[in-house]
Design a protein that fits this description.
single chain, 298 residues, mainly beta, five-stranded antiparallel beta sheet, 12 strands, elongated
Length: 298
Amino acid sequence: MAPILTNLTSHFGFGSKQVIASGTGGNRVISDDYVYHVFTGTGTFIPTSRAPFSVECLIIAGGGASSPSASVGGGGAGGYRSITSTAVINTRYTITVGGGGPTTAPRGGTASSAFGFTSAGGGGGGAAKTVGNSGGSGGGGGGMTTNAPPFGGGAGSGNTPPTTPPQGNPGGPASGYSIAPGTGGGGGSIIASGGPGGPGPGGTSTYPSPGKGVGAPGGHPASETFPVPVIGSGIPAPLYPTWFPNVSPEGFCRGGHSGPRTTPTRAPIANTGYGGDWSQATGGSSGIVVIRYKINQY
C-alpha cells in the first residue's frame, strides 16, 4: 500500500504546502506571476501572508556628488546589490532608500538597505589635488588649480565596504599634469557593465584635454529579474518622463562626469543611484529599493 500512498501524495500535492505570498509597502506592481514593491523613498514592507516566503531584492544607494567648484572630481555611483533570495515573515521591515550626496565635502551619497543587506553610498568627488572619496563606487580624483605640485588626485576606492559580488568600482584619477584647471577624474560605476575608472571612458582626465573626466557607464538595462519597464510602473508619474529615457538605455548607477565649463553635464535624476556631474549644484541622485516575489510559492 505504501507505493500507492506515495503516488497519491505526489499526484495530488498532499505532501506540499502552498504559500500565497503577499505584502504591502512602496508602489505595488504586478507582472505575470510576480509582485514588485518599488520604494522610491524610505518606507516599510509588511508581508501579509501567515507563512514565511522568499523574496528577491534590488538595493541601490544614493550617488556621490561633484561640485560647482573648479577641479572637483565626478561623483561615484551608489552601490548596487541584487539579493537573489531571503526569507521574510509576517512582521514590519524598514526599507531605507539613500539620498544623493550634497555638493559640500565629503559629498558622499547615503546607503540604502533592506532585510539586513546594505548598499553603500557613492563616494564624493575629490577636491582639487586630492584623492576621490571611497564608497559603493569611488569618486573621481580632484584636478589641479595651479601649475604646481601636487598635481591631480588619485581615484576613490569602490566596493567599500567590500561585498561579494562587488557593489561598485573605483573612480577615475585626475591627470598628473595640466596647465588648465578643472581636471577631475570621472566617478565609478557598477560592476555589471562599467569598468573601473581608467584610461579612456572609465574616467581618467589627461592633458591636453583638461578636466574631461568621463563618468563610467551604468549597469546593463536588461534584467529578467528586475526589468526596467516593470520598475518604471512604480516610479511616480512626475518623475517617469525623465527617469525612463535615462535608465532604459543606461541602467542604474552611472558615474559622474567632471571637467571644465565646456564639458556637458547632466542634472541628477532621482531613484537612479547616478553619481553627480561637475557644475551641478544639486549633487548626486537618490537610490531605489525594489522587492520582488512569486505569488504562488511551495
